[in-house]
Amino acid sequence: MAASSRAQVLRLYRALLRESQRFSGYNYRTYAIRRIRDAFRENKNVKDSEKIEELVSKAKENLEIIHRQVHLFVILSKSCIHLIKLAHAVIDGKK
């Protein structure tokens, strides 16, 4: 693997781990981190440049998915908190 390719893979690995750390839920966070580490360990001895490019492409797609899921969780958790507060206000108003 060329040095630039190795550096690119390491940057991608760190980015995946960093983004996974942003999951608010412990189970989601630990699962994502475990899967990332396992996948990179499983493929650490791949020498075929085409296979490496395929794996890098797949990892980039997964990074986008993780990024999207993290933001979705943030939005949904804020919405849930707002709905709970609204429900409490409605219940308190009826008393």
TrEMBL record:
InterPro entries: Complex1_LYR_dom, Complex1_LYR_LYRM4, ISC_assembly_LYR. It comes from the Eukaryota. One of its GO terms (biological process) is [4Fe-4S] cluster assembly. One of its GO terms (molecular function) is protein homodimerization activity. Signal peptide: none annotated. Residues 7-64 form the Complex 1 LYR protein domain. GO terms for cellular component: mitochondrial [2Fe-2S] assembly complex; nuclear body. Belongs to the complex I LYR family. PANTHER family: LYR MOTIF-CONTAINING PROTEIN 4, PROTEIN C6ORF149. This is LYR motif containing 4. The gene is LYRM4.
